[in-house]
Amino acid sequence: MNKSARFLFGIKTLTVFCFFVFFTGDQVSVFGQESAEITTNESATTYSLRTPFHTLETYLRFTGDEERNLSLATRTFPPAYAGVEEAQLNAQKLRQALDGRGIIIDLSVAPKERSYTDTTENAQVYYFTNEFSSLYLERADDGRWYFSEESFKAIPQIHREVFPFGTDRLLTLLPKLGTNEYFGLQTWQLIALLGLIFIAVAVHKVFSYILKEVIIVFLKKAGYEQIANKYYMPVARPLSYMVIFPTITILLPVLQLNVTFTHYITITIYALIPLFGTVFFYRLVDVLSAYLQKMAEKTESTLDDQLVPLVKKVLRIFVIVVGGLAILSNLNFNILPLITGLSIGGLAVALAAQDTLKNFFGSVMIFIDKPFQIGDWITTGGVDGTVEEVGFRATRIRTFRDSLIYIPNGKLADTDIDNHGKRRYRRFFTTITITYDTPAEVVDTFVNGLRGIVERHPDTRKDFYNIFLNDLGAHSLNIMFYVFFPVPTWGEELRVRHELLLDIINLAEELNVRFAFPTQTLHMETFPDKPSLTPEFTESGDQLKNKVTAFLKGNKSSTSN
Is the dihedral of CA 243, 246, 247, 248 positive or negative? Predict the structure, then answer.
């Protein structure tokens, strides 16, 4: 190649180079600027804070065991804390808390948009866990994503919450036992795991001993030996587990096991705590029912005996519902929509089952007002019989025909109830009829004898009764017999009636008093050659008045007695 050709080639090469520099130099500069915003190179280690995904990935990367570098991990904190010793300590504490609580940070769902905005708060923030509301990322003025200032300041409190009672000290003491790995666990983790099992067993034994030696003895001294023997074990076991599992949740974070394993173990324990709590309170309802049953036996009211089973059913349903909601809540289910749905559904059910609710509240009013007891004889709405059972919906009444009638409690609460069982006295009212040919003196003696029968009988009310010659009937002289019996049952009433009537019959036989019955007598006013049966009244009015006065003064009226 001659000089001119080489010169032209050089000119062409220089032109191409200048052209390349001119058109690509700005692109390289822009790329470099972009790279500077989203990545940083420190000691040949590159990391990015461009999006929430990159920030979380950076933090997890440099706090892990493989590329552990707490100084670089602090770059995810606000710039003022980068590399600071306090920040490194916080970075370690946060990772310990996340692993100890079993919080899995799912990077697959982390936003990879640089300008990501949380629509609920209308801010460029990202909450990566629901466990702690104070932990979130936010975009800074330089366009990078950091842990928020609030998150950084909350880390010590979060650490204390995950490691309460100073258990975080074990994180520095236990690793001294050895770090060799066996079955995927280090020596100190295996030893700590065995220690945790030992502590759980020891807590169970100690707690069971306390229950047996203290509570059982106390119950027996209080006179509830049957409750102690029958319900001790069913109640003690779930109660013991309720103590063991919280103990495990306190010590489990110290083991620093695999985060996925810890996550599911923690969820399981959090579900088991309310589960055993539900079992405990469910069985405790049996203890309470036994106590209430014993108290009900001491009362005179038989309605209390029916109230105890109803209270038992209500409490069991309440325990199951509350326990189920607690279990779902600990399994990270949002129970608020469920409760809202139950409320709306409950309203719909209430509207559709008004009669059922009316009967339920009717039963509540019956137990509160106690208009009758089990075994009482009542009359209501044309129904006459003995109360056998009061349920949630209806009351069962045994009629005197031996049939069963179920009356809805809502209807029963709104109607009149004649409770014969509430009577203090049982009334006996009858009319004793004797013949007209009985002399007045015999009638008076007979009436006084009837009063003596009442006074003599042990099952009659002595302070109030009425026995008088009360009426001149069409066929007889009528004596009112009005007395009361202070007896509790209808059978006792019939017995006393029987005894009094026998005494009355015997008294009548003794005085030759004849009981009258409907008869008709035919009187002929006149017979041939016979005087008329019609009386002749020849006295004047003054003479008749004098006879009455003489009769009253002669002490022959009933008032003279």
Answer: positive
Express each pLDDT in 254-272 by its tens digit.
888 888 888 888 888 888 8
pLDDT above 70 as % of the chain: 77
Q: Which of 145, 80, 94 is nearest to 118 (CA)?
A: 145
What value does the mean pLDDT take over residues 201-227? 74
**3-state DSSP: the chain helix, strand, coil percent, rounded to 5?**
60, 15, 25
CATH C-level class of 423-510: alpha beta
Distance from the Cα of residue 409 to its chain's centroid: 22
How many Cβ atoms are within 10 Å of 189's Cβ, its own excluded?
22
CA angle 144, 150, 156 (to 5 degrees): 115
Say if residues 55 and 76 touch (Cβ distance below 8 Å): yes
Contact 170, 254 (CB under 8 A): yes
pLDDT in tens, 283-301: 888 878 877 777 777 766 6
Q: Would you call 262 exposed, middle or buried from its count of C-beta atoms within 10 A (0-12, 13-18, 19+)?
A: buried
Cα distances from 199 to residues 193, 212, 256, 365, in angstroms, run 10, 20, 18, 52
Contact between 293 and 308 (Cβ < 8 Å): yes
Amino acid identity at 137: L
- End-to-end, the C-alpha distance of the chain in Å comes to 173
Q: Using 50, 70 and 90 to split pLDDT, how confident is the model at 30? A: very low
**In the numeric block, which tokens belong to residue 138?**
């936010």
CATH number for the domain formed by residue range(s) 355-421? 2.30.30.60
Spatial separation of the C-alpha atoms in residues 114 and 38, rounded to whole Å: 10
Under DSSP, is residue 47 helix (H, G, I), strand (E, B) or coil? strand
In this structure, which amino acid lies at residue 409?
N
258: left (phi over 0), alpha (psi -120 to 50) or beta: beta
Element (H, E) at 138: strand 137-139
* Global pTM exceeds 0.70: no
Length of the chain: 561
- The closest of 200, 373, 229, 394 to 300, measured between CA atoms, is 373
C-alpha to C-alpha distance for 305 and 370, rounded to whole angstroms: 12
Residue 489: phi and psi, rounded to 5, are: -125, 165
